[in-house]
Amino acid sequence: MKQILSKITFWKATAGLIFTAGLYATYVRFVDGLGASTNLSDDFPWGLWVGFDVITGVGLAAGGFTLAAMVHVFNLKRFEPVVRPAILTAFLGYTLVILGLMYDLGRPLQIWHAIIMWNPRSVMFEVAWCVMLYTTVLALEFSPVVLEKFKLTKTIKFIKRITIPLVIVGVLLSTLHQSSLGSVYLIAPDKLYGLWYSPYLPFFFYISAIAVGCAMVIVESFLSARAFHRGLEMDILADIARVGVVMLGVYLSFKTVDLIERKALGLLFLPRYETYLYWLEMVVGVFGPMILLAQRKFRENHNGLFAGALMIVVGFIINRMNTSITGFEGWAGKGYFPSWMELAVTLSIVVFGFVAFALAVKYLPIFTHAEHEELSPPADEWAKDLQTVSQLR
Description:
about 400 residues; Formate dehydrogenase/DMSO reductase fold
């Protein structure tokens, strides 16, 4: 008994409590329905489970297609050490998005209907198909890691032959559904508040997804380095941060032009709840990290790089929550705050993702490329020493 208790850490106990609450909330959700487990209503049919678990979750998983494209399409091989963790994060992210969607659907057992009941005029139909196909692509991209574990060399060779076509298909699918998630809100110009509604929402969703994808790669690298006691590829992560800064610059430029074109600049200075939250997302997620990561001394510093990337992630989450929830509160005439069961389910999904990532790192060669790079310099030095000794003999 003492041995069991000694293995229970603070984080394991916290995860256990979250899972327990999540299991109870799951029981209530699927036995008693949405009304008994959520604060959703006719005014807010989409709440936390769509705003965070789906809309935000898909964007946070964008590092997979971003890094895969950089390495396999643009042939930037120096970023290869962080590709496997990025693809693993993306694969887990999309899997958890599908899991979260099951909670929000009124009839979750009919999720497969999109496969046979086609509605090509629906944006959600396109998103459903893209997510299904891209999750399959991610599974194939990640499969060599699993195959290496079982030493299935012939199958690995086949997968590597089709890697570039797979990555290209994955980039196309990601471009479609990352932007289409923004297209979902184009049908609500009179309901979504002017600071977030824009005819360019699909473009904003796509560009911000690339920026946060880069930031997630950095955050994931820092967290895994601390958890698994491994080194950091600081030069690679610093260059990825530069890509993120460029994307934020593009995002900010088009946001500014959009506000000017729509004559909505005045909304930035109204003393309203929406104004304060808009400035919060821009300061935390755009202005702050751009100023921080644009400077080399901060970008090449451990704390500065992590802080800048984390700010992008937090700002992105605030933006998606503002777009999906805050922007509709004025039209609805009342606010929405998720029930404790909604929070419990969302936290359980997030914790499950961390646990799955830790188990994958423990049992699969996720950081193989990084380890080979760290081991190669000493090996070269030893080879030179052996050659010198042989010459002396």
